Amino acid sequence: CCGWDGHRRAKAFNVDVEDARRLGINMIAYALGVHGLGIYQATAKNYYEDQARARGDFVFAQARVGENCDSQANSIANLLKAVATKTSAEIKFERRVVDLAGPDVLGYPFLYLTGHHDFRLSPAEVQGLKTYLAGGGFLLASPCCGRREFDAAFRRELARVTSAPLMPLPETHPVYSIFYKVKSVSYTPWAEVAQESLPKLPVEGVQAGGVTCVVYCPFGLGGGWRGFDHPYGRDIAADDAMKLGVNIVLYSLTH
């Protein structure tokens, strides 16, 4: 603070005036830069039916894959609340984290996969996901914060599971209209700052037996499920992310 005041005193153990001011400016800039992120991450929500017998046939199952794969509990709670309150679907306010290589995954018709980083499936996990999809399971995947590392890893690992390619879903697909009518999506300011081509409708999918068994969004969906935009997320904007999330859940229930 002596440097900030412009004091240069002999024998004082102070940082030089110009360096002190540069450091001070950097500290303030850092604090302002992470303030929005702090607010975004400072909430925690409980599943109010965690200890109760839940109704309905839908449980939100999430795959345990790689690091940081369980980072969106609050977001998922908001999505389940939206499906339960805005539609006629009866769902369980319950989220289960499951292993792809274990037998439990086969008991859940809906599976969500997300994460921040690169990951690799073990041979047992590849076979488990292959069996899951072949048996009628539905997979929704999206990178947390829209991370490109996860995007590249998911595309690579999915190719080990199925030979059917990921293809952009046409605007006539039910995920864009089954409940909410989504003709285009908006993106977070951070995604727009990246100065890349932002598609009008970003969702991709894999077809099997006349239905879409894998739905993938290369931009973050879970960030927007919190109800407001992640300040550093390469995400779909919150309102459109929630609409897509509700539509995708309803598609999985009806198809």
Please give a structural write-up.
- This protein has 255 residues and is an alpha/beta fold.
- Helices cover 37% and strands 14% of the residues.
- It has eight helices and seven strands; from the N terminus they run ααβαββαβαβαββαα.
- It has helices spanning 2-5, 17-41, 73-86, 123-134, 148-161, 189-193, 222-225, 238-254; strands at 58-63, 91-98, 110-113, 138-141, 167-168, 204-208, 211-216.
- It has a seven-stranded mixed beta sheet, with helices on both faces.
- The model is unreliable at 50-54 (pLDDT under 50).
Quick tags:
255 residues; alpha/beta; 7 strands; elongated
Please summarize what this structure is:
The protein has about 260 residues and is of the alpha/beta class.
Q: Please identify the structural class as seen in this structure.
A: alpha/beta
Number of helices: 8
Mean pLDDT: 87
The order of strands across the largest sheet is 2-1-3-4-7-6-5
**Alpha-carbon distance between the termini?**
64 Å
Q: Which value, in Å, is the CA radius of gyration?
A: 22 Å
User: Which word captures the global form?
Assistant: elongated
The proportion of residues forming helix, as a percent range, comes to 25-40%
Q: How many strand elements?
A: 7
Give, in order, the helices and strands. Answer: HHEHEEHEHEHEEHH
Largest sheet: 7 strands, mixed
Model regions low in confidence, pLDDT < 50 over at least 5 residues: 50-54
Name the beta content range.
5-15%
